[in-house]
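pipeline/complex-builder :: batch 7 item 3
reading input block
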Amino acid sequence: MERINLTQANTNSALLAKVTRESGQDISACYQCGKCTAGCLMAGAGDGGPRLVMRLLQFGLLDQVLSGKAIWLCAACGICTVRCPREIDVAKVMESLRRMARQTGQRPAEPAVAAFEDLFLTCVSRHGRMHELGVMVAHNIKTGRPFKDADLGQKLFFRGKLRLLPSRVRKVAAVKQLFARTGGGAA
Amino acid sequence: MKRVGVFVCHCGSNIAGTVDCAAVVAAARRIPAVAYAEDNKYTCSEVGQEQIRKAVQTHNLDRVVVAACSPRMHEATFRKTIASVGLNPYMLEIANLREQCSWVHSDRQAATAKAIDLVRLAVAKVLYNKPLFTSTLPVKKRAVVIGGGIAGIQAALDIAEAGHPVTLIERSQSIGGRMAQLDKTFPTLDCSSCILMPRMVDVGAHPMIDLMTYSEVEEVDGFIGNFRVKVRQRAKSVDHSKCTGCGECTEKCPTQVPAEFEAGLGERKAIYTDFPQAVPNKPVIDRDHCRYFLDGKCGICRKVCQADAIDYTQTDRQVEIEAGAIVVATGFDLFDPAKYGEYGGGRYPDVITGLQFERLISASGPTNGEIRRPSDGRVPETIAFIKCVGSRDEAHGVPYCSRVCCMYTAKQAMLVKEHAKDSKVYIFYIDVRAAGKGYEEFYQRAQTDAGATYVRGRVAKIFPRGEKLVLWAEDTLIGKQLELEVDLVVLATGIVAREGAVEFAQKMGISYDGHRFYSEAHPKLRPVDTNVDGIFLAGACQGPKDIPDTVAQASAAAVKVCSIFSKEELETNAMVATVDENICAGCFHCRAVCPSGAIDSKILHAWVAGQDVTRRVATVNSGVCQGCGSCAAACPSGAMNVGGFSNEQILGEVEAL
């Protein structure tokens, strides 16, 4: 088992303060009961759930969190937030961490998830709504699997479930303004 | 010429660490009325007090300012000090340099400047101080104890044993309270009933205890030594002077009602006692459910009663009790787990509370002490206990720890071994709190002797799967999600204040905290006093506590009551309101705002132009007045003044600013 060196833990207080500031959540309030992870639908797929993320943050091990899978596997369903007895918005903390992982130039541990998030948000910021075909094709190219789901795509296309060209909402400008106000684009 | 002495206390480094005391003394000396000023390391010490006495005598001082800690701490001390050298004790003012200055500031220069201002204000005020005098009032040597749980029982017995009459008021049919509902008690596993019932019998039989069950306090007024408690005795519909307690009526009564005592797991009749060993062991009729009262039919109980004790015509009675002291022992409620949607929100019959589990394992309970699932009556093979339900949970319940759940869960795990030895027990916890004599050892035995498996993690979700219940949790020690199938789930629900606690506190005039528990006068030094002299607290109405702590607090409250009763007369407050009858316009705004009912009216006669002109003015009953000052604030003409806080004194302070 790897021993965590707490003495030299990355106690980058500026970065930690940023997590607190951006998420508006008090990380130190977590008393590690594990109710978040217990009900988390994605924790089983990764390297630990939200409780572990909160623990690492309390130790100041931010790098380990930002390079880990948990923040990318989080589906932002918010079950953790609803159940937290300390009223910490855990999902919001995860969101802030994803943002920070981008800003620090960290290579996402789950690149496909990150790529999807990018493409999805870019699409919404442009058109005001999702363009399934575009995002699907772009995601396949970006992740190096151009023919993934090609069969299914074909079927969907011929049944009229996939539009060739993106449709736009009426007030795209308003959506763009919204993105500008919240810091723009993908997390 | 008025001669003021100023004594500045260092309070070790508490004040001197932030305030330059020598500079404060120097500034005090420059005030014209100050005849003498000095500083001391500890003014409250015997040495410090002797300095004051000496200075009063050598410098012929006629009033004193002590610049030290809060007046709540040592005002009484210094009043005695100056009284011992012949000054009226009220010729004293305290400048609070500690709580209101040094403790809350860090800038030495600014703090010193503020300290000097505080001393100047105190000097300006003391110049207008007038000698005040107390009078005495006789003490009514009867105690009223409100609440007949173990706290009230213990307090009542202790006071009665000391030779003073007690009226014990209980809301339900019997005394006994929560403790009567429990099966066994931690950490000794002695039977709750076996240790409680003898006490209950003692209360019922004690010549000095007047037991009023099925009664509620409606109103309290008066003050220490002279309270008046209005009690409503609800109609029992049974003449207890005739009833022999044979139980024939209860047996024949056709109406079944969910029993409060069985925590919803059992039923009682409409004419009932709370439990078989009830004190008094004579039934009452629950008029909300009795057929006779609902539709005028039935009357079976009257037919079967050999003693002719059933009396449907009884009415509620109001009784007024005069008492010198009151003990409040109104107990607690349990947190309602229906707020936890993820635990079923009350939809799953096999998810029960800790108190319901107590009834399940009680030999006198609905299953005669066999652990059986409420849904199908099967003996559960696997039982999960979930701790901190409602406690330590801001989202669903309360942030505090309820103190008893860790231990009662450990106890219940032990009892599972006794009652269903093949059942497997899992206990989900966040932290285990076992601080108490023999508690940690008991908790360990729950693991080693009873074989309970402790899992560190709060359960996120309970859902049914066939006849079983599935729990989802994380074992936070391994860091893995886990799933567990069980037959029965017991929620260790926390302790919350009684429903209606706030309304009751307002009736009594006592204060309560943010969680509606009644506040003690000082968290360390006055743990059983309230903010109202003569009203004391015992048990969980003041905050979650277990039986040993409750009994200790009840005995402490009893001693406090007895110490009041050890005097024939009590000294009244000297700092009471007075009326300037020349100015009083008789508007009686004061009477409307007075919380103690201390203001009466009187008629003044004057001869004006040969005629007898009468005028109505306010007058203060100085024995009743608590000196709160509400009247002085409300008086539009400035006729009301409170001793020690007269308009002149306050304006003197304002001018000095």
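note: The interface with chain B takes residues 31-40, 43-44, 48-49, 51-52, 79, 83-87 of chain A (CB under 8 Å).
queue -> next item
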